Amino acid sequence: MKKPRRVRRRMARKIPNIYDVARMARVSVFTVSAVTNKSSHVSVALKRRVETSIRKLNYRPNLLARGLAKRQTHTIGMIVPDIANPFFPQVVRGAEDEAQKDGYSILLCNSDDKQEKEEVYLELLLSKRVDGILLTKTPGRFSPRLQQMLAYVKTPIVLLMRTAPGVRADAAVTDDLKGAFDAVSHLARVGHRTIALVSGPLHVSNAKARWQGFRKALVTNGLHYDPALVVEGDYRIDSGYRAGLALLPRRPEAIFVANYLMTVGLLKAAEEMRMRCPEDFALASFDDYPWLGFFRPRLTTVDLPQYELGATAAQMLLERIAGKRGRPRTRKLMPQLCVRDSCGFTQHVRKLAAVKKAR
Amino acid sequence: MKKPRRVRRRMARKIPNIYDVARMARVSVFTVSAVTNKSSHVSVALKRRVETSIRKLNYRPNLLARGLAKRQTHTIGMIVPDIANPFFPQVVRGAEDEAQKDGYSILLCNSDDKQEKEEVYLELLLSKRVDGILLTKTPGRFSPRLQQMLAYVKTPIVLLMRTAPGVRADAAVTDDLKGAFDAVSHLARVGHRTIALVSGPLHVSNAKARWQGFRKALVTNGLHYDPALVVEGDYRIDSGYRAGLALLPRRPEAIFVANYLMTVGLLKAAEEMRMRCPEDFALASFDDYPWLGFFRPRLTTVDLPQYELGATAAQMLLERIAGKRGRPRTRKLMPQLCVRDSCGFTQHVRKLAAVKKAR
DNA sequence: TTGTAGGCGTTATCAA
DNA sequence: TTGATAACGCCTACAA
Lengths: 359, 359
What we know:
The structure is a homodimer.
Chain A lengths: L17 H8 L3 H9 L6 H14 L5 H8 L4 E6 L7 H14 L3 E6 L4 H13 L4 E4 L8 H10 L3 E4 L9 E5 L1 H15 L4 E5 L5 H16 L9 E3 L4 H11 L6 E4 L2 H13 L9 E5 L13 E4 L2 H16 L8 E4 L2 E3 L6 H14 L1
Helix pairs in contact in A: 1-2, 1-3, 5-12, 8-9, 10-11
The structure holds a DNA duplex.
C-alpha cells in the first residue's frame, strides 16, 4: 500500500501542482495533464472544471518536471565568444526570435574563445539537458572525452559563424572568402596597389577564409602579395591597434581589416600617428553597423547578415531537434559590399572627373 | 513489493544515471549522491569506487532532476528590451560573468519593451523555476495576476537600469539625472545658450531622470527652457532621426540626446540636411562605446558603467537567492562625462586662446 | 473518455 | 557511514 502524498504543513504556501488542480476539479491528474497539453480529448464538462481550477489556483506546470518526464526542456544553449563584441548581439537576437517562435528559450554563454570555458559550458548545457546547442566554436578541437560525450548524447549542434575541423554538424556561416574578395577587389579597382591586411586569427575558419579572399583578390587584380603587409590579430580592438602601429609606418595605400573591432584599434593607431583616412590610407573592413554611415571616416565595409545568420542557425537546430535526419548541411549566407568613403572611392571618382574635365 | 526499475532495452544507449553508477560501484544511490555533492562524509574506499564508476560511465548528474528535487535550478532569467541595442551586451556580459562565478547560467529574453512579451517571458521563467530574475522593466505596471504570481512564488527580482512604480525590488541603476546634468551643464559652460533635448520615452524612469537632469542644468545655468526644443523619442534610431528633422531647422546651438541610438538617427538627419557637428550644432549624448573616440564627430558623452551595472545587479540578485533578507535596496552607479569634440569644447578652447592672443 | 500507477533522475529522511 | 525509499511534479502506458 502506498500511502497518500504527505501533506506539507511547514511552508504555509506552496506552489500548486497538478495534484492540487486535480483534487479541486475532482478529476485525475491525467485529465489535468490532458487539458494543459491538449494531448487527448477531454469532455467539455471536465475540461471546464479543470480550467476553472487552474485559474483559481493560478496553476502553471512546472517545466522542470515536465522536462524530466518528457526528456526535453525546450531550451537551447548558445555559446558565443563574447556577447559584448558588437557582432554577436544581432546574431543572438536572430536566434532568440526564431527560438521563441517555437517555444524555445536561450541559455547564453560566453566562451571568450577559450577552449576550457567552452568545454565547461558545453558540459553544463548537456547536464541541463538543453535540446540543442548553437556554437561559435573556439579554435582547436574538442577533447576526446567531450567528443565522446557529444556523440553519445546526440544533442544536436549547429555551428555558427565558424566551421570546425572534426565536428560533423550543421553550420550557418557567411561567405567570408567572397566578402573579402569583393572588398579587396574594390580597393584595387579604386587604384590602390599596395594593400595591407589585418587578419583575424588564422586558425579560425572565417579568418582563414577572409585571408584567402584577400589573396585571391590580389592575384585576380595582378597585385603583389607582400607578407610584410599582413598582420594577424585576434579580432579584438587591441590587436588592431598594434597592427596599425606596425602597418601604418609602411605606408600602404590601403588596408583591409578582417573585423570591426580591429578597425577601431587601427583607427586609434592612425589617430596617434596623425594619419587620416582616407586621405593618408584607404580602408575597408568587415562587419557593418547602423551607425557607420554617419561618422567619419565613413567606412566601406562587408556587411554580414548577422540577424539572419542567427535566425538561420536556430532554424536548422530546431529542425534537428524536431527529428530531421540526414547528413550535416552548411548554409552559407551572402555578404554585401557596402561602399562608402574610407576606401577612397569618392576621391577616386572625383579624380576621374577632374581628369576628364582637364582633357 | 516494488519491482526493480525496468531495464530499458529499446534504446540501445541510455545516458547513465545515478543508479547505474551505484550498481557498478556496488553502493547505494545515496553514496553516489554524497560523493558528487560532497554533502556527507564517505569512506575513502567507497568514494574511490564511486569515482571510478563515474569516470568509466562518464556520468554527469542530470541537472533537471536535481533542480526538481532541490527546488533550485542555478539559472537566472534576464529580460532586456533588446540585446541588439548596443547598450545591453556589456550589461548582459557583466551579469553573466558574475552569475557564472557562482555557478549560475543566464536565460536571455528580449521584451522589445512590450508589456505582453515581458509578461509571457516572466511567466515562462517562473515556470522554468529560475532562481531569480534580472529585469529591465517595460514601461507600465504588471498585470494584477502577474503581480500576484510574483508575490506568491517569491522569486527574487532585481530591476536593471530602470526602476518601476509598484515593484518593490532591489534595483541597480545609474545616476542619470547627474549624468544629464553634467552633460548639459558642460554644454552651457562652453557657451551654448539654446540647448535642445531629444529625450527617451518619459514614462521610463531613466528617461525621466535624464529629462530632469536637463532641466536642472538649464535652471542652474540660467538658461530658458523652451518646450519647442524638446522632442520625446523612444530610444531607437528612427525616433532620433525624426527628432533631428524636427529640431535641426530650429537651429539650436546645442543638442543633448538621451541615448546613443537616437544620436545616430539625429546624425543621419543632420547629414541629410547638410549640417555638420560641431560646426553647425554642438552635441552631447548618453552612452559611451569604445569606438566613439576614433570617428568624427568625436562624441562627447555620458559614459555609463554598463558592465558594472550588469555585474552589480547580478550580485544583488545572487545575494537574495542566497537568502539575504531586508528591504529592497537601490544601488546607483555613477556616470562619467567624457568630453570630446562634438560639444564644441575644442572649438571653444581655441576661440578663448585666440582672444587671449589678440590682447 | 478517464483513472491508476510507474517512471523520469535527483535529493532527503530515517533507520540500520 | 551507509542503505532503503519517499518525495520533487510531471507524463503516459495500460486498464477500466
